[in-house]
Amino acid sequence: RTVYVNGDYLPETEAKVSIFDRGFLMADAVYEVTSVLDGKLIDFEGHAVRLKRSLSELQMAEPCSKDELLEIHRKLVELNGIEEGLIYLQVSRGSDGDRDFAFPSEDTKPTIVLFTQNKPGLADSPASKKGAKIISIDDIRWGRRDIKTTQLLYPSLGKMMAKAAGCDDAWMVEDGYVTEGTSNNAYFVKGGKIVTRPLSTDILHGITRKAVLRMAAEAQMVVEERLFTVDEAKEADEAFTTSASAFVMPVVEIDGVTLGDGTPGPIAKRLREIYLDESR
Ligand code: PDD
């Protein structure tokens, strides 16, 4: 695989980042995951805008222009022959060669790394046909989840808790209300109405969420953005999640409670179809 690091395209075994990099030592880094379908980037613009915002919220320098970023994405897709898959992009604050809690000097260059993940069959995945089983866990993350940082230890532990329980993923709950999934936004459907948490600093402003809510409105579906509890979601007709890595993923079970007949619901299936059609 050819990867990109700080201006160079290199074989993955030759790419190097300093051990003092603050991304490595302190998770002082932000990231984006963009999907690729039929060799084309899905919603690059949305990801580029969110990256800029994440960087600015953390007073981190932009490593390059949006046009250069697009060029790097396209070149990696081409060099690695990606038809279906993902591109991971990470920008960290870099380092001035030592460990310190205070930021390094202003002229320290951010570290930028991109790599592709080839995922043939992503759009047609067996997992999306089965639907996901979810457990709920406490949300103990920090309070700025709207910034896409690489502080992913808790979501990673959540995923492992789900696996240990024989499930696929976890939804996080704070003050009695669902925030989001470990790596996706969360929705349930009751009586034809789609319910999802409103945007705030409590959740990531999903690029897929934005697209799917627009498509739902265009398809005359009713969407309500409000707080909701796990109990409400358990009583739903169906549920689903959205993310760049799994598009629209039906949810068929929450904390051992089967939703509907235990297969992906009609609205989740329809939205997945519309999303994949329109993105291509
Ligand atoms: N995760 N919420 C969280 C906590 C996420 O990590 C993600 C994305 C989303 C969905 O955002 P988007 O639709 O822009 O992908 C919501 C990526 C895919 C990841 O960490 O791999």
How would you explain this protein's 3D organization?
This protein is α+β, with helices and mostly antiparallel strands and 280 residues long. The chain has two domains: 2-120, 2-Layer Sandwich (D-amino Acid Aminotransferase, Chain A, domain 1); 126-279, Alpha-Beta Barrel (D-amino Acid Aminotransferase, Chain A, domain 2). Helix content is 29%, strand content 30%. The chain contains eight helices and 15 strands. The strands form two sheets. Strands 7, 8, 9, 10, 11, 12, 13, 14 and 15 form a nine-stranded mixed beta sheet that branches. Strand 1 (2-5) and strand 2 (8-11) form a beta hairpin. The radius of gyration is 19 Å and the shape is globular. It starts with a strand and ends with a helix. The mean pLDDT is 98. Residues 33, 180, 183-185, 204, 206-209, 242-245 line the site of N-(5'-phosphopyridoxyl)-D-alanine.
Strand and helix layout:
Elements: E1 2-5, E2 8-11, H1 22-26, E3 29-37, E4 40-41, H2 44-57, H3 66-79, E5 85-92, E6 111-118, H4 126-130, E7 132-138, H5 153-164, E8 169-174, E9 177-181, E10 185-190, E11 193-196, H6 207-218, E12 222-225, H7 230-234, E13 238-243, E14 247-254, E15 257-258, H8 266-279
The protein binds N-(5'-phosphopyridoxyl)-D-alanine.
